[in-house]
């Protein structure tokens, strides 16, 4: 049976300004250029899974809401072009989600302001969840990809774990919401991916009595403790990304967590969407049955290619590009 990856989450139209520096409060500063791109963590993740999977080997589905504006039409068209199933992408009256992004040209670092728009209405009834996750199409080993850019994350996790426990819940708690960091909720998560800042925030809330150093060894220790908080029935894996340094992953089955260095690139153009690309690359490989080490290696290459292009969605590479680069590295 072809594996199914369902992404529930946000779709945004990105308004991007490139600048040599960010203006101070009250200051007007001449920017270098302006561009528009499609984005949103949900859309980026869906595109990443679809583009980073071999043709016809993974079914990628997008569950979300878009507005009746031109932004919404463009967002849907992009998914269709990537062969993402949009049966459960609903168009509602009003504006689509918008992200205002400032990118510093020298470093590629970004600052993002999000207006929810249609994403703020992405809540579903039990009946809607039953329709989306029909038992006849969601077999053992499928994945649901979630983040915090829509208001129904908590219900999505609890409904899935209660009604479709065989499906792996892959979760990135971004943007970070402390109210969603509880032992009860996290006991339902199968695959957790966090950046180093989010990992530290999680540790402060759920592991307040444990001291962790902000170092590779410190984050390895943190990965061990965070992994214990997850559901231990399915894939039971935690990944901590560390930007240009690399990432740490741990399933609880290895002797100790593993650290994988990031791929060096000649020039970082735009880091927007790099994390979503990495997330999608890992999930697509896991859905295909590859082990975590191969999935991480693949995703590391994918994200290194993404940061060398402008735009969150446009920068996501395709499967063949990553394979070619991966073989080249070897």
TrEMBL record:
<feature type="binding site">
    <location>
        <begin position="40"/>
        <end position="44"/>
    </location>
    <ligand>
        <name>substrate</name>
    </ligand>
</feature>
<dbReference type="GO" id="GO:0005524">
    <property type="term" value="F:ATP binding"/>
</dbReference>
<keyword id="KW-0119">Carbohydrate metabolism</keyword>
<feature type="binding site">
    <location>
        <position position="195"/>
    </location>
    <ligand>
        <name>ATP</name>
    </ligand>
</feature>
<dbReference type="Pfam" id="PF00294">
    <property type="entry name" value="PfkB"/>
</dbReference>
<dbReference type="InterPro" id="IPR011611">
    <property type="entry name" value="PfkB_dom"/>
</dbReference>
<dbReference type="GO" id="GO:0005634">
    <property type="term" value="C:nucleus"/>
</dbReference>
<feature type="binding site">
    <location>
        <position position="306"/>
    </location>
    <ligand>
        <name>K(+)</name>
    </ligand>
</feature>
<feature type="active site" description="Proton acceptor">
    <location>
        <position position="276"/>
    </location>
</feature>
<feature type="binding site">
    <location>
        <begin position="12"/>
        <end position="14"/>
    </location>
    <ligand>
        <name>substrate</name>
    </ligand>
</feature>
<keyword id="KW-0460">Magnesium</keyword>
<dbReference type="InterPro" id="IPR002173">
    <property type="entry name" value="Carboh/pur_kinase_PfkB_CS"/>
</dbReference>
<keyword id="KW-0479">Metal-binding</keyword>
<dbReference type="InterPro" id="IPR002139">
    <property type="entry name" value="Ribo/fructo_kinase"/>
</dbReference>
<comment type="similarity">
    <text>Belongs to the carbohydrate kinase PfkB family. Ribokinase subfamily.</text>
</comment>
<keyword id="KW-0963">Cytoplasm</keyword>
<comment type="similarity">
    <text>Belongs to the carbohydrate kinase pfkB family.</text>
</comment>
<dbReference type="GO" id="GO:0004747">
    <property type="term" value="F:ribokinase activity"/>
</dbReference>
<feature type="binding site">
    <location>
        <begin position="241"/>
        <end position="246"/>
    </location>
    <ligand>
        <name>ATP</name>
    </ligand>
</feature>
<feature type="binding site">
    <location>
        <position position="149"/>
    </location>
    <ligand>
        <name>substrate</name>
    </ligand>
</feature>
<dbReference type="GO" id="GO:0005737">
    <property type="term" value="C:cytoplasm"/>
</dbReference>
<keyword id="KW-0539">Nucleus</keyword>
<keyword id="KW-0808">Transferase</keyword>
<feature type="binding site">
    <location>
        <position position="311"/>
    </location>
    <ligand>
        <name>K(+)</name>
    </ligand>
</feature>
<feature type="domain" description="Carbohydrate kinase PfkB">
    <location>
        <begin position="5"/>
        <end position="317"/>
    </location>
</feature>
<feature type="binding site">
    <location>
        <position position="270"/>
    </location>
    <ligand>
        <name>K(+)</name>
    </ligand>
</feature>
<dbReference type="InterPro" id="IPR011877">
    <property type="entry name" value="Ribokinase"/>
</dbReference>
<keyword id="KW-0547">Nucleotide-binding</keyword>
<keyword id="KW-0067">ATP-binding</keyword>
<dbReference type="InterPro" id="IPR029056">
    <property type="entry name" value="Ribokinase-like"/>
</dbReference>
<comment type="pathway">
    <text>Carbohydrate metabolism; D-ribose degradation; D-ribose 5-phosphate from beta-D-ribopyranose: step 2/2.</text>
</comment>
<dbReference type="GO" id="GO:0019303">
    <property type="term" value="P:D-ribose catabolic process"/>
</dbReference>
<feature type="binding site">
    <location>
        <position position="272"/>
    </location>
    <ligand>
        <name>K(+)</name>
    </ligand>
</feature>
<feature type="binding site">
    <location>
        <position position="309"/>
    </location>
    <ligand>
        <name>K(+)</name>
    </ligand>
</feature>
<protein>
    <recommendedName>
        <fullName>Ribokinase</fullName>
        <ecNumber>2.7.1.15</ecNumber>
    </recommendedName>
</protein>
<keyword id="KW-0418">Kinase</keyword>
<keyword id="KW-0630">Potassium</keyword>
<feature type="binding site">
    <location>
        <begin position="275"/>
        <end position="276"/>
    </location>
    <ligand>
        <name>ATP</name>
    </ligand>
</feature>
<comment type="subunit">
    <text>Homodimer.</text>
</comment>
<dbReference type="GO" id="GO:0046872">
    <property type="term" value="F:metal ion binding"/>
</dbReference>
<comment type="function">
    <text>Catalyzes the phosphorylation of ribose at O-5 in a reaction requiring ATP and magnesium. The resulting D-ribose-5-phosphate can then be used either for sythesis of nucleotides, histidine, and tryptophan, or as a component of the pentose phosphate pathway.</text>
</comment>
<feature type="binding site">
    <location>
        <position position="276"/>
    </location>
    <ligand>
        <name>substrate</name>
    </ligand>
</feature>
